[in-house]
């Protein structure tokens, strides 16, 4: 008869008390209920703005948005019709797109190329130049408003969309380079060397190996940059004029005494808020997919 090795015996679990078992069984449900409650409270202002955008200005001034639950007849699309007839709002919405999309794409593209160069390419003064990029992270936007206003005026782009885009690109690049360089530096060197042995040049290596691996970081950067530019008002107030102002500035200028222009402000504010939410959730799905794909591989 063979002896049983005591080291191979199954571990004996300590017996838990009844109170511990009850707590472990209910803790997950309580936490889930708490998170759902927090999410509902967080979305109440958004839902209230949505309901207000579908109410008549007279109803808004006399009662709260929750009145729609007892008087659903108050809901109307007249405010959105008024909004679409407002040339200042519609043109500013297009200006916001023309500012946000190029500013986001340029920052992601240039930041990715510069981050790869700082991570894996050897050139003179690489570390010192990266320190300069890191130092630019602490430069506040307000410091550059007056000097760049003077520079853009001499170049003839002050008040144009291109001036606002260039400002956002210039201040978005330091963070983009810093973020992507640190992400690229974590890629195994053996993987890049294997691609080079297969005959891949730097451009092909960057496009076919590095960028797919960096999809989560690029998606995160795109989300942050898009939200920063879309919701910006300070830079747009300084560098845009009446023909190039984005939606945030147009809504601010629509504010009148006692809120008499609420039929434009409510739907305009909701549109200004819901578009970044749609973009955020769309990029978030790509971000999660990239993380899971990288975990599996």
Specify the biggest β-sheet. Answer: none
Instruction: Give the SSE order as H and E letters.
Output: HHHHHHHHHHHHH
Q: How much is the radius of gyration in Å?
A: 27 Å
Please give the number of β-strands: 0
What's the total helix number?
13
Q: What global shape is seen?
A: globular
End-to-end Cα distance, whole Å, is: 47 Å
Report the average pLDDT across residues.
Answer: 80
By secondary-structure content and strand pairing, the structural class works out as: mainly alpha
* Uncertain ranges: 290-297
SS strand fraction: under 5%
Helix percentage: over 70%
Structure description:
- The chain is built from 13 helices and no strands.
- By secondary structure, it is mainly α.
- Helix 5 (126-136) crosses helix 7 and helix 10 runs antiparallel to helix 13 (262-296).
- The model is unreliable at 290-297 (pLDDT under 50).
Per-chain topology:
Elements: H1 18-53, H2 57-62, H3 78-84, H4 87-120, H5 126-136, H6 141-155, H7 161-184, H8 189-197, H9 202-213, H10 215-230, H11 234-239, H12 247-254, H13 262-296
Helix pairs in contact: 1-13, 3-13, 4-7, 4-10, 4-12, 5-7, 7-10, 10-13, 12-13
Short description:
This protein has 13 helices and no strands. The protein is mostly helical and 297 residues long. The relative contact order is 0.11.
């Amino acid at each position: 008869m063979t002896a049983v090795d005591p080291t191979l015996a199954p571990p004996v679990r300590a017996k838990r008390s009844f109170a511990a078992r009850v707590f472990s069984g209910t803790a997950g449900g309580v936490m889930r209920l708490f998170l759902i409650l927090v999410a509902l409270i967080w979305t109440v202002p958004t839902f209230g703005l949505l309901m207000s955008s579908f109410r008549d200005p007279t109803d808004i001034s006399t009662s709260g948005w929750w009145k729609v639950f007892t008087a659903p007849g108050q809901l109307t699309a007249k405010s959105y019709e008024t909004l679409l007839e407002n040339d200042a709002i519609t043109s500013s919405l297009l200006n916001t797109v023309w500012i946000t999309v190029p500013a986001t794409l340029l920052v992601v593209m240039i930041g990715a190329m510069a981050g790869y160069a700082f991570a894996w390419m050897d050139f003179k003064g690489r570390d010192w130049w990266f320190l300069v990029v890191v130092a630019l992270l602490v430069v506040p936007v307000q410091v550059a408003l007056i000097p760049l206003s003077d520079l853009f005026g001499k170049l003839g782009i002050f008040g144009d969309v291109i001036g606002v885009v260039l400002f956002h690109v210039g201040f978005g690049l330091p963070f983009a380079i810093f973020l992507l360089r640190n992400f690229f530096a974590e890629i195994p060197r053996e993987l890049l060397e294997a691609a080079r042995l297969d005959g891949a040049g730097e451009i092909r290596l960057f496009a076919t190996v590095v960028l797919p691996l960096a999809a989560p970081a690029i998606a995160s950067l795109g989300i942050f940059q898009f939200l920063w530019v879309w919701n910006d008002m300070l830079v747009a107030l300084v560098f845009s004029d009446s023909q190039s102002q984005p939606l945030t500035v147009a809504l601010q200028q629509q504010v009148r005494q006692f809120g008499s222009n609420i039929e434009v402000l409510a739907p305009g504010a909701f549109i200004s808020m819901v578009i970044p939410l749609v973009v955020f959730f769309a990029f978030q799905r790509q971000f999660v997919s990239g993380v899971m794909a990288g975990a599996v591989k």
